[in-house]
Design brief:
Elements (H helix, E strand, L loop, with lengths): L8 H8 L13 H15 L6 H8 L3 H4 L6 H13 L13 H18 L15 H14 L6 H32 L3 H6 L2 H4 L6 H8 L9 H27 L23 H12 L4
């Protein structure tokens, strides 16, 4: 069975890279449609996004939009890549260590989701990434490629950080949506749960933490979680260096090192790895 354009991911790739896009007619173009979709989702979330509403916002018929984009799902892919191209603030300098650079990437993703909360609502693993999303992914990968981690570990680390940012952002979206529907804030709702709190005195650990003020000024979930996540990655990197020192592999890439018959043992498999190690030391990573 031949797939329609709305079901063809290859067609979405062409749209994301603006290859073979329909020629813009006066007043309507793919870029305008995508920007209108972003504005609508910023105001109403993904639940409020439809091709009809985007068309109304632009002053065109719904059918006129389909000449430029096959459907809502493809529009969301285009919207995600559009906002991913926004300039990120507070980025780390190129000479900073891996931790500062990876943290800066995570914070940039967090700030992006604070500006566009609907990003956290985009679920599933079959959303086609565009050039801006891939550029951000490339930047994150580059922060930990020369840390001694294996290629699979580099990809896993970046995926872990990305999922953490998404999960924390989704919690904010869900809390805001619940507050909008109910008209009651989180603090007010929990403040009215006296019948529950009366039953908690039978749990001594919980009671002690409550009485000691553990719930009065809780840690910021994003800040606490990001710091602990980076701590764990730092420990993994340190373990990789220690294990390679023990096995005699290259301290940068882990490849076997031909050792001389006499004299000082070699730590690097090539001049390139030696230079990488020097750059890391001068950047304050070692």
């Amino acid at each position: 069975m031949t797939r329609g354009r709305a079901e063809d991911p290859d067609h979405v790739v062409e749209l994301l890279w603006r290859e073979g896009a329909a020629e813009p007619r006066p007043g309507l173009s793919l870029d305008r449609i995508v920007r209108a979709g972003v504005e609508l989702a910023d105001a109403e979330g993904l639940a409020g996004l439809s091709m009809r509403k985007v068309a109304e916002r632009l002053g065109f018929t719904t059918m006129s939009l389909y000449r430029h984009v096959p459907g809502r799902d493809q529009l969301i892919d285009l919207m995600c890549d559009e906002v991913a191209g926004e300039t990120a603030g507070g980025s780390a300098a190129a000479g900073d260590g891996w931790r500062a650079r990876l943290e800066a990437c995570a914070r940039a993703g967090w700030e992006l989701r604070r500006r566009h909360p609907w990003l956290a609502e985009v679920r599933g693993g079959r959303h086609v990434p565009g050039p801006n999303i891939i550029a951000r992914y490339e930047q994150m990968l580059s922060t930990v490629t020369d840390t001694g981690l294996t290629p699979a570990e580099v990809i896993a680390v970046v995926g872990l950080v990305g999922r953490f940012v998404d999960s924390e952002a989704l919690l904010l979206v869900e809390a805001a949506e619940t507050e909008r529907r109910s008209g009651v804030s989180e603090e007010e709702w929990w403040g009215g749960r006296d019948t529950l709190f009366e039953r908690l005195y039978g749990y001594p650990t919980l009671t002690r933490l409550w009485e000691q003020g553990g719930f009065d000024r809780p840690e910021d979930p994003f800040e606490f979680g990001l710091a602990r996540l980076l701590d764990g990655i730092e420990l993994l990197i340190r373990q990789r260096y220690e294990s390679r020192d023990e096995t005699g592999g290259c301290v940068v890439c882990g490849a076997p090192v031909d050792q001389p018959a006499a004299g000082r043992p070699r730590a690097y498999c090539s001049a390139s790895c030696r230079q990488r190690a020097y750059r890391r030391r001068t950047a304050g990573q070692d």
